[in-house]
Design goal:
Radius of gyration: 36 Å
Number of strands: 9
Mean pLDDT: 78
Low-confidence stretches: 1-7, 9-30
Largest sheet: 9 strands, antiparallel
Shape: elongated
Number of helices: 3
Amino acid sequence: MAINGIGDNPYAFLNSNSSTSSTETEQDSGQLAMEDFMSLMTTQLMNQDPLKPMESGDFLGQIASFGTVSGISDLQQSFDSFAKSMQSDQALQGSSLVGRSVLVPSSIGVMGEDGLRGQINVAESVTDLEVKVYNEAGALVRTLEMGSASGYTNFTWDGFSENGEAMPAGVYQFQATGTVGGVNTAFSTATVAKVDSVLVGSGSQGLTVNLAGIGSVPFSEVQEII
């Protein structure tokens, strides 16, 4: 005997609902979407104590809180994508630096076929700027008389000592000084160095350039790409 047109199986309707519920459960991503949140809020309003109804401010506050959490999650995803994009850009930029020369803050440099090139930041005008060059043992090999200078001043050492002797290629140290207000003053210096390789960092660590004769230097310290 059929019951309510269901047929011989009186539990067919229950089985059908169970199947539908199972399908919906499988499709549930496990995340609370805005539609789910609104459904919960509606149910809460329908079952609230009529003598103590939820104030509109509380209702809007809950919606705002949900929206804030959802927005932070979306923002985090955007930042993750941005970070990956920046890392790819750094890798591309780094590969183009290998073999090129850069200007970085340093008091040591490599003297090669083109000599040793550097730059001095003459903070105050002087009339007796000079650059002293020392070998790795710390012995003075050459003094370059630069004369009057102000601001950023470039210099080149040709690789010859005071007596005209050609010095071997390698690492040398240099110091720039001048008289300011009657006092011999040292100035900040930078050197031109060749990029041997580049290290692309992860996370908060950025690009690092490995310079011939100097070592590893953060890319943020590179003053000029030559």
